[in-house]
Structure formats: C-alpha cells, structure tokens
Amino acid sequence: MNDWEKSIEDGKVIKISPNPERAESLVESSLRLLRVVEKIKLDKENGFFILTNYYDIVLESMHALLYKKGYKSLDHLSIGYYIRDILQNAEFFNIFDKYRKIRNGILYYGRKIDFGTAQQGIKDLKRLYKFVKSLL
Predict the structure, then answer these.
(1) pTM higher than 0.85 for the full model?
(2) Residue numbers of the domain that contains 24
C-alpha cells in the first residue's frame, strides 16, 4: 500500500463524486491570485509573501484536480502523496513537500526565509504549477 492509499484508509482523503464545478471554481480562484502575485515586484521584504502565495496557487490547483478526480484531501501531505504515488512524479513531490514545510514554518512559527530561498522557491513552484495546470 502506498502513502496515497494509506491517506484514504486513514480518512485524510475522502472519496467523493467528481465535482467539476468546484474544481473550476478553484482554478479560477488560483488564477486570480496568480494575476495579483505576478504584479508584485520581488524584493527582500516580500519574498516570503510571494513564496507562500505561489504555494497556495499550487495547492488550490491540486485541490481542483482532486475534485475533478473525485477526492477531497483534508491535509497537504496527502496531496503531496497524490503527486508522488498517483501522478508518479517524485521530483514535484519533493518540491511540494519542501515548500509545504517552509510555508508552515513562515505561517505558523514566524520563521524567516532568506531572499535566495524565496527566489528558488518561486522558481520551483512556478514549474510545479505549470505541471499541475497541464493536468487540469
């Protein structure tokens, strides 16, 4: 049993009827956020903000994909397992998981990130978003 299947078994992912309307709503929401974030010039003061928003764009897009496929995830890690176990992409799982941890550190523990981490994270998350978007 892979981690995605275990997430379903443990109740962290719920099998639902596919919901294309909800998926489309999330896609539109992520696109609105993307348009806003792309207008912001990256600097040392706002790197953490842009990084966390790119993570949220990817997250909303992944939720949209799961709604299309008939799943609802109750945690972010299970979404990462979907990327790795179902989409069979370990590289993008590692990116998602890395920035999941960094985002949580920023939002819940007040951790700071340096400008280089923000730059690399934004670059990585843009690549991940492009991948997810191609599946929608």
Answers:
(1) yes
(2) 3-135
